[in-house]
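Practice problem: predict the structure.
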Amino acid sequence: IIPAGCKVISSPTRPPTPAHFGQTLHLPFAADWKEALFGNNNKMLASGTFGAPILRTAMPPGKSLLRSRVACRVKDTSLPNQYDLCARCCADGSTMKEYIDFTDSYSPVAGIDSIRILLNLSAASGLTV
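Answer:
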């Protein structure tokens, strides 16, 4: 099974890993890199990960959006002379500012300890969850 965002290629030597997606346009297998990226984007669209763009006017004052970048990676497979070209879209953290953006996080993630505390508080208060 090939994950979305990866394209299997056959090559006698391991292809170079590009530093950014722009380099893939000048490498052999450029069409395969594009297919890997479009496969990843289609997966993100189908799962609802990509949604409506956030308007800059809707951002809280003093906050900014992180740009996105494409991370490219060449993976070895179990077969000789076959490689996975993987491309995925991710946040570009190079625009973050030390002591300002490093502590702010806008992701809906909760640790298990936080969930346990909330469940205990709701049970103690007689609330249904």
